[in-house]
Amino acid sequence: MPHAQLIGAAAAGALSATALLVSILRASPNFARRLAKKQVITTPHPHPKYKPGDKQPHPFGHDRMISLDPAVIGGAAMYPFVISSVVPRPVAFISSLSKEGEGNLSPYSYFNAVSHDPPFLAVGHCHTKGRPEGKKDSLLNILETGEFVVCIMSEWFIEAANHTCGNYDRGINEMELSGLTPVPSVKVKPPRVKESAVHFECKLRHTYDVKNDKGEVTATVVLGEVVLAHVHEGVAAKSPSGKTIVDITKYWPVARLGGNTYSRLTEIFDLPRPDREWQFKTPTKGDMPKAGS
């Protein structure tokens, strides 16, 4: 079987397995009840009997691997593999303005926080044909104005947020189109999204152009410094040391998987770090660290 076909078959198999797992989970009465109550349940970590040095093999019964060489199969074939393997990914819900003041709102899952002192966020913007220099509206706006806002997507407005990801013409206001509500920012001009529980007002600090083996720019990585952050009181909490954190059980963040698939957070577990003295005794409930400590 040709390499590209092999990759396609593997991807199809993975998607089928994912669909089967999702259908099994959704059929579980306990799962349905948890979702109805919007509960995030704390469970033991997967292997409580683990001791340092114990082997933890994968469950597949063999060691056969499929190798993917980007130089051979190309970016189009790598895309579904990358987005289905690097998971779950947080989603940056980016609000920006053009130099003329036209609003744009769009989700990006090539995204993460990369530092906290100062806080920096990184967003990968893939280029696409049919756009000026291949750049999508969010990237064009950020490069023109040097400002943007990253809001975090939660389950209660996921449908409206997802509606903004269409390939709309430049100048179309996705905030208005989706029914979401703009609120003024403080230190930057692009508005925030009222429905989101966490907002990061950002200033552009660095960009990096990603080039393929033909020398073509295929993506631009944007590094933005967070100049002001906002958290809704409904999800805000305090760590044991008194620092402001987000209560994950109320946040209901949504993460991106492969294809059109998203994930919700329904279970969490604590796993102490091995550099803590109490790691080497049998932990009790009182020993377990609290989130954000």
Overall radius of gyration:
21 Å
- The SS-based structural class is alpha+beta
Taking all residues together, what is the mean pLDDT?
Answer: 85
What would you call the shape? globular
Figure out the total of helices. 7
| Number of E-state strands | 16
Strands side by side in the biggest sheet? 4-3-7-10-11-6-5
N- to C-terminal distance: 52 Å
CATH architecture of the domain at 89-256: Roll
Q: Unreliable segments (pLDDT under 50, ≥5 consecutive)?
A: 1-27
Helix content: 25-40%
CATH topology of the domain at 89-256: Pnp Oxidase, Chain A
CATH H level, superfamily name of the domain at 89-256: Electron Transport, Fmn-binding Protein, Chain A
Biggest beta sheet attributes: 7 strands, antiparallel
Classify the beta-strand content into a percent band. 25-35%
Order of helices and strands: HHEHEEEEEHEHHEEEEEEHEEE
CATH class group of the domain at 89-256 = Mainly Beta
Protein name: Flavin reductase like domain-containing protein
Family: Belongs to the flavoredoxin family.
Keywords: Flavoprotein, FMN
GO molecular function, one term: FMN binding
Features:
293 residues, Pnp Oxidase, Chain A, 3-stranded antiparallel β-sheet, 7 helices
Descriptive report:
The protein has 293 residues and is an alpha+beta fold. It has a domain at 89-256: Roll (Pnp Oxidase, Chain A). Helices cover 25% and strands 28% of the residues. The chain is built from 7 helices and 16 strands. It has a 7-stranded antiparallel beta sheet, covered by helices on one side. It has a 3-stranded antiparallel beta sheet with strand order 2-14-15, with no helix packed on it. Strand 12 (236-238) and strand 13 form a beta hairpin. Helix 1 (3-27) packs parallel to helix 3. The longest helix has 25 residues, at 3-27. It is globular and about 60 Å long. The termini are far apart. Residues 1-27 have low confidence and may be disordered.
